[in-house]
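Q: May I have one protein plus its fold?
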Amino acid sequence: MTNLHHLAEQAVRKALDAGRTVAAAESLTAGMVTAVLADTPGASGMLQGGVVAYQNSVKTDVLGVSADLLAGVGSVDGDVAAGMAAGVRSALGADIGIATTGVAGPDEHDGKAVGTVFIGVASADGTSAFQYSFSGNRADIRGQACGAALERLLDVLSPQALSS
């Protein structure tokens, strides 16, 4: 079992135990987070769905991320990741929204270096974003971003987070 599948198994179990549903909005991971969760037995009890928001038009039109924000900071930004997470949570009626945006390479994007990734999380407690700097080739960076998203999902599903 890969590390990603191990993380997904833990996340699915925790979400089911807590009675929480999850939705994902993915840019650079393009559905990897949703797919690895769906690979896990029991996922149908917690996974609402996912939106691949590769283009900014999808970020604005489907997820409700501000066009002004995107024009000002570009798509690789913590506020954009948080907005994507909040948007998918709302659009798909989930308890928790998780989002990925970043630069997988080979070239920088919006002035951000290859390997720059933001993970957004949205729940009833609000939204937050986390910045990462990964290295490797395009596939490596996308895989690391998927792992980071699953780890952040586990964090928000932790008993401490759920009881607050």
